[in-house]
Amino acid sequence: MPRLDPADIGRPLSVGEVAQRAGVAVSALHFYEARGLIHSVRNEGNQRRYTRDVLRRVAVIKVAQRIGISLEDIGAAIASLPEGRTPNARDWARLSKGWQQELDARIAHLQALRDQLDDCIGCGCLSLGACKLRNPLDSLSEEGPGPRRIVKE
């Protein structure tokens, strides 16, 4: 890998350079920008240029997406970061702490589903009185026939 010339440290990055360095597609950067997750400026040729802090911001976005955080929640978290400053370890600690409760709740929900899976025959009727997964105590039967969901996904 070629070494970075110290004179290039403050040079804005093209969309292709950011995509290559961040390991994402150019279209992903355009999408993130359209959602307000990252920002660019336009040069004289109307091409996007990014400051280097965008590399860390994209890393934060990708990690958050990988653990299942919604883009809406990622956007709120990114909005809390100072513009033009690279997110640091303190920023990440604050952001990730805010996401831990959501992850813990999802983990508990998945563990409960796993533990109840043996009781399900996967028939899809959703009206059996014994169905602990989707219709505990057959509470949905009062709403009429057909499949109904208790848990919104």
UniProtKB/TrEMBL annotation:
- Pfam families given in the database record: MerR, MerR-DNA-bind
What Gene Ontology terms describe what this protein does at the molecular function level? 2 iron, 2 sulfur cluster binding; DNA binding; DNA-binding transcription factor activity; metal ion binding
- From which domain of life does this come? Bacteria
Q: Which Gene Ontology BP annotations are present?
A: response to oxidative stress
| Keyword DNA-binding belongs to the record | yes
CDD domains linked? HTH_SoxR
| Residue ranges of every copy of the HTH merR-type domain listed in the record | 12-80
Q: Which UniProt keywords apply?
A: 2Fe-2S, DNA-binding, Iron, Iron-sulfur, Metal-binding, Transcription, Transcription regulation
Protein name, entry field: Redox-sensitive transcriptional activator SoxR
The species this protein belongs to is Hylemonella gracilis
